[in-house]
Model the fold of this input.
Amino acid sequence: MKYLVCISKVPDTTTKITFSDNDTKFNESGVQFIVNPYDEWYALVRALELKEKFGGSVTIINVGGADCDPILRKALAIGADDAVRINTNDSDAYNVANQISNFAKENAFDVILTGKETINYNGAQVGGMIAAILDYPYVSQASKLEMEGNTATIDRDIQGGTEVISVDAPFVLSAAKGLAEQRIPNMRGIMAARTKPLKVVEPIDSENLTSVISYSLPAEKGQVKLIDPENTDELVNLLHNEAKVI
Amino acid sequence: MSVLIFADSFNGKIVKSAHEAVSYGSKIAKDKGTDAVVLTYGDIAEAELADLGKNGADKVLHCSSLNQMLPNNLLKLAEEAVASTNADIVIFSFDNTGKTIAPMLSAKLKAGLVPGVIDFPSSYEPFTIKKNVFSGKAFAEYTISTPTKIISLLPNSVPVNQVGAAAAVEAFNPNLADSRISIKEVKAKGGDGQILLAEAELVVSAGRGMKGPENWGIVEEIAKELGAGTACSRPVADIGWRPHHEHVGQTGFAIRPNLYIAIGISGAIQHLAGVNGSKVIVVINKDPEAPFFKAADYGIVGDAFEVLPRLLESVKKFKAAS
Ligand SMILES: Cc1cc2nc3c(=O)[nH]c(=O)nc-3n(C[C@H](O)[C@H](O)[C@H](O)COP(=O)(O)OP(=O)(O)OC[C@H]3O[C@@H](n4cnc5c(N)ncnc54)[C@H](O)[C@@H]3O)c2cc1C
Ligand SMILES: Nc1ncnc2c1ncn2[C@@H]1O[C@H](COP(=O)(O)O)[C@@H](O)[C@H]1O
Done:
């Protein structure tokens, strides 16, 4: 099987979010970037496990600028075979999906994995868009993936439960918690990653369907109202009469 | 032109987030002077469908030939419905189904999608709308530049209308043949009457401060008395004290209930990211320096093992009196 894992660059989860240029840009100064957790912990690791068990290859792909190369090296250190970066701005999900789909079509991958969402834009959309562009079946929010020959058995999270799905490759899957366990790269992996291929590809023409015009932060909370631990009646009273939530 | 709203169901009932989406979509239809048409599928009684009129729907298209969430078939269903209603605004809920189908439809129609919006459009020309970004740590205003616009609405963002009369229900069964995905088994979790976390208006959540899974009984009892859903911090789900579907935060579910009670949770930035959209936050923690107090409306500094039994009694007393 040829696996293609889509990797996005996101700010570290502890980042304090601020904006610049009149609140039109995310302020990257001093921000540490990581591989989106859903892409790294679940999609990439499960693809590697399946490759280790049955053979095949794991290619990672990113749509972005040269600033994404360090996170691609990190994913190579975890074990991916090679990396591709499509050298264009990733501000619109449809554009990202179009670029990835074009590459996937030319290189005939069997399974395309994305994370269920990025932790910066929380779109949960790139995987579904790739599936629609390529006209592949789409299984979203997968928490378990087994392959037998060309056929995959997948657990999918649904409202109030789980569904067990059967689908033949090629297909697109978005990875949720449970699909695999996080892997920490070891020294050998890190050394090997330095010489693994990272190919930079120029983008195809594609339009943007949406754009961000400004950002804002939630209003600061006022001072917390402390209640005597002996007086839980008072808390219930405040929730009913003041906050009016119960 | 029309506004098309995709409404999901669970066990034959239209789900709460779909009632919100229909209320939301019908307000937009009214602003634009067009009809609000609902698209739904599965085994749902006619009366339940007609009832969507109360949320403002003018018409309900019902596909009864499909009763499973099969993404490629549902994509075709949505495409057919957009064509037949001439919809220029399509609305989904930002739940599992909406997260699956809306992006597929967006790419198929080349219609811009803004997923997870939290408010009405601030302008129709250009079409501008607000969504959560950075897992709830910030908001962004997006514009959609294509003639057809798709949005998905974050649950618990708008109230449900109860205004209109019964809606007209029409059978809508286009040919959806696509057998590439099949569902072999459905495993339900929890019993009947379980409150789905994504829909819960009240949530009681606990963290590592509870010391072990055997101490969760009182958390569940308080939740049950209040009619609340239960949630937990990530380490608690990771060590298996609680099921994964209760894990909230940046790498778990993002929720925005009216009330979030956090017990024995420190309030790490990754936890806050998934819950700070909650309207009111109560924190119970024995450490007065716990960062969560900075994000709280009400706080109790105390030992959960002493406070919770008292809180349960107070809630019981309140429920008995109301
Ligand atoms: C990449 C990444 C992603 C993450 N994503 C998430 C996420 O999505 N969700 C999430 O929750 N975390 C997430 N985390 C973990 C997060 O950083 C914290 O470690 C976690 O939220 C802490 O959980 P906790 O508050 O239950 O435990 P602790 O931090 O151990 O806090 C326990 C709290 O309980 C209090 N306490 C102890 N005993 C009592 C008592 N008897 N009565 C009352 N209070 C008591 C303590 O004072 C303390 O404040 C993530 C971390 C990383 C690195
Ligand atoms: N710029 C990108 N390059 C490669 N993959 C991406 C990019 N953006 C998003 N993805 C993939 O799509 C998933 C969902 O992203 P999103 O739709 O932005 O929430 C991510 O988890 C990644 O796997």
The CA atoms of residues 51 and 57 of chain A lie 6 Å apart. Chain A has six helices and 15 strands.
